[in-house]
Amino acid sequence: MIKKVLIANRGEVAVRIIRACKELGLKTVAIYSEADITSLHTKKSDEAYLIPRDPIKAYLDYKNIIRIAKQSGVDAIHPGYGFLSENHEFAQACIDAGLIFIGPTPEQIETFGDKVKAKKVMKSLGLPVVPGSEEPIQSLEEAYDIAKDIGYPIILKAAYGGGGRGMRVVYDEKSLKQSFESAQKESLAFFGKGDIFIEKYIQRPKHIEIQILADKYGNVVHLGERDCSIQRRHQKIIEITPSPVLEPAVRNKMLGMSVRAMMKYGYESAGTIEFILDQNTNEFYFIEMNTRLQVEHTITEMVTGIDIVEQMIRIASGEPLPFVQNDITFRGSAIQFRINAEDPKRNFAPSPGRITAYHSPGGIGIRIDSAIYKDYIIPPYYDSLAGKLCVWALNWDRALARARRALDEFIIRGIPTNLQLHREIIRDEDFIRGDFDTSFLDNKLNEYSYKIENEVQKDIIALAISAAIASHYGL
Ligand code: ADP
Ligand code: ADP
Ligand code: MG
Predict the structure, then answer these.
(1) Which of 72, 148, 302, 449 has its CA 20 to 30 Å from the CA of residue 242?
(2) Which domains does the chain have, with CATH numbers?
(3) What is the C-alpha separation between 270 and 78, in angstroms, rounded?
(4) Per-residue pLDDT tens for 410-463?
């Protein structure tokens, strides 16, 4: 068994991994940038090492990270999500340095990191894929031809993309040129490669994904699905398990196909297979595979009781999965809300800064994975995800009631956040009915905007009330 782990990440996910290590009796090593000296993960780990200079490059500086790992005597590295988690060269460099990379093999990361290659492989493993170009597009002329062939609307996607970046929906021929050029530019800026491919744009789909766990011995299980259709700019902000409206026959087909594909392929570690589901036809299509821990793994943990980070560590240590599919039970319903330092009123612009007041909800069925606290200053260099509120209850209706209660308890002041947006969504009749797809938020934002304006007002009232109560009791 692994004894000491370096966490090559920051923020809430670094804290999440440290927690799993502690429960397993493993020692932990954190790394941090100069912008993260006050970050929670540096305090919760047994050791923490500064990577000086550029705060953005710090978490990507893999030579330095491996050097710290060797010097501090760790035997394994967990990459979390984002940063180096899907970098096959980093995974290989860990192995070459005699360290265990907690994740799949470098070859598996490389295959699925290229969305075009991933689609080919998954197609050969029996999964339906979205119609589109079989290779990256070489020229604008080729883009016109392929788009005409499959029919508008189409979506341009970065082959090496992630986090909703490098993506453009194109509704007609005349906007193709501009979208193609801007997608290419964005892809080059974010992912270092400008490879773009084309897919048929499925209108008003649900995003449904399957959580997989697989060991080194060919044992593969699924941990159910997650409905991640509530998105802004193609990036998830609310995730739900189970999906409140997915038909059992469709669910079972997706789960069965995913497990069989991963068995055939010989995948190992945790992974997520993402699909879009056309609700009119109940046809679903593979879009990408994430070969890492996913931000929304939390809700799967709540309904299964399985610690996914613990399982990743055990798998990397060479242990076989301790359960078979039939041992896994699914109980109740869970929802995750991403608490982002961003301003929904300003097109979700990042809103770093000092947290001047912080009160997190508690009570039955609540889980908070967060890296923020009162007086913490969110640095401007990283992802806007500040924390995650997860609720669990016996069924969807009760989970909704609990989520309303928990979101109303939550106080974060000092910076704009998306808390009030979550409060609006959770009270929306369409959302409550499960009647939502990936375009839900785009269609609702105008309707919500007036109420979001009043967010600060309401927060001030809530704080004034708690201050009045405190003074009444002489606190
Ligand atoms: P997807 O790529 O399908 O959106 P996730 O929803 O799991 O997958 O989101 C992963 C994203 O999280 C990354 O693409 C990145 O934008 C973001 N991210 C990267 N590093 C961190 C971090 N330390 N904490 C929170 N989010 C991060
Ligand atoms: P990322 O790597 O950025 O997570 P994905 O390929 O997973 O990119 O797509 C992100 C989101 O974009 C999906 O959840 C979905 O909302 C939308 N999307 C992607 N491909 C399509 C498509 N072919 N048709 C409609 N929507 C799509
Ligand atoms: Mg995705």
Answers:
(1) 449
(2) 4-102 (3.40.50.20), 131-200 (3.30.1490.20), 205-447 (3.30.470.20)
(3) 12
(4) 999 999 999 999 999 999 999 999 999 999 999 999 888 766 665 555 555 555
